[in-house]
Please model this.
Amino acid sequence: MAAGEMAKSSIELYDASKLTNSLVPSGYPSRPQGPDGSRSLPGAYQGVALYVDIRKSTEIGRHITRRFGATRRAELFRDFLQTCMETIVRESGATCDYSGDAVRATLTGPDSAGRALAAARAVIRYASEIFEPACKQYLTGRKRGWLWGRRDYLPFQVSAGIDSGEIVPTLMATSNGCTTELQATPVDVAAKICGIVKPGSIGITMDTYRKLRPALLESDRRHRRSVRIGGELTPILTVRPSSK
Model:
């Protein structure tokens, strides 16, 4: 077979539009399809993505599990994530879902970036001013092993990332049925920024900031920087809310 024909054959083999249900793992439902036969749902839209994540969640979770049990660890993370989502919805009216120990949200409409920023600011303050003081007994103390000593302490902190662009809801097959996943660069970029900025901070892409002009508070500490995301330098504005 000629090289050109081989390349064409390889491209056709991995053409997603020609994949069949025979490639779906055993135990999974058939590949979900929308009304038009595709796996992309109608309603791709321009929106803002907000991603809020617990920092050092693995260390915190391991410590709580070893000292107080896996059930207590699950309860604490559940309580925080549920309140985190409620706060985001209350402050911004966003559509939210969970992603491991993080919450991701999408917003549309007037001042969507400003509402995302206000929601992130509220969650950061809740984590540092209310949740962490209430759970301090679980975040410090002596335990067996190398990580913690008598005076060791891990603060319970979160960070947030914000980006904007086209968001596409997509049907995905799981062992529990079909679910809707957001296939969107803004969601991915927001998650990356969230993991780059310092705990207690919010990172928003400069493109989003210039385009949507979210309101900043005079008390917010801010600075511009460029971070590498997906192999490209991306200018962001880092905002650190001040404590009341």
